[in-house]
Amino acid sequence: MDGSFTEEVLRLNPAKELGAPPKERALAGRMNVEYIPAFYGAFTEYTAVAEMRPGIGEEVAIGEFILQRDVKVFDFSVFSRAPHNKWSDNYRHTRYDFIEQMEKEISRRVLPYEKQRQYISTQIVAEYLKEYFGCEAVIYRSSVVSGPSAENPNIVILPRAESFVGGDTAVLKYQRF
Fold first, then answer.
1. To which H or E segment does residue 110 belong?
2. H/E/C letters for each residue in 131-162?
3. Where are the domains of the chain?
4. Per-residue confidence at 113, pLDDT binned at 50, 70, 90?
5. How far apart are CA 92 and CA 136, in angstroms?
6. Are 172 and 14 in contact (CB under 8 A)?
7. What is the tens place of the pLDDT at every residue in 15-56?
8. Could you give the 3-state DSSP secondary structure of residue 22?
9. More confident: 8 or 94
10. What's the pLDDT tens digit per position in 73-106?
11. Taking phi first (over 0 means left), then psi (-120 to 50 degrees means alpha), and beta for anything else, what does residue 147 get?
12. Radius of gyration of the chain (CA)
C-alpha cells in the first residue's frame, strides 16, 4: 500500500474504509468480477480474521456493520447447517442437489494463483441470483474456517447502484497478530 491507510483515516470514516472497495481497486472474488465491487463480510470476528489471513505482526481492523434496510439473501449454507437426515428425504430433488453442489463449490478453498479461473462459475451464479431472483446478498460457508460445528458463515453483498453502507454504520475493533 502507499501508506495513506492509517488508523486516523480509518477512524474518520470506518464504513467507507472497511466497506466495498472503489471500482478501480476491486479485485475478482468468489462472487464478483474484477472492477465490480462487492462487500465481503463474516458473521464472527474469528472467521473475518481467518479470511484475511494476516501475517505475524500484522494489524487488522474489524468493522461491525448494520444493514440500513432489509435485503433479499440466498443462503447456500442452510443445507449444511441442517442435519442431513432432516431434509434429504423430503427435499431430494435435482434442484437441491445442484444447490448443495454449488454451495460446496463456493466454499471450496482456492489458491491465489487459481482465483481467475476457479471463480468464474461462482461469479456467474451470483450474477444469476442477482438478475433473475433479485438477490442482493449471498451467504456461504468459509473455505478457511471449516468443520462440522464451525461457526463460519460469510456474506457477500452483491454490487448494486446505491452505496453499500451509509453514515456511521461500522463499529471498529483492532487485533494484532
1. none
2. HHHCCCEEEEECCCCCCCCCCCEEEEECCCCC
3. 7-176
4. low
5. 27
6. yes
7. 788 888 888 988 888 889 889 889 999 998 888 888 888 888
8. coil
9. 8
10. 998 887 666 665 555 555 555 566 777 777 777 7
11. left
12. 17
pLDDT, position 130: 92
Q: Where are the beta strands (DSSP E) in the chain?
A: 39-42, 59-65, 73-75, 137-141, 153-157, 170-176
Are 164 and 156 a contacting pair, CB within 8 Å?
Answer: no
d(CA 57, CA 25): 25
pLDDT in the model for residue 137: 92
**Residue type (1 letter), 36:** I
Exposure string over 148-163, b if 16+ CB within 10 A, otherwise e: eeeebbbbbbbbeeee
The cell for 35 is 472492477
| C-alpha cell belonging to residue 9 | 483515516
Residues 6+ apart with CB under 8 A from 20: 26, 37, 38, 39, 157, 159, 164
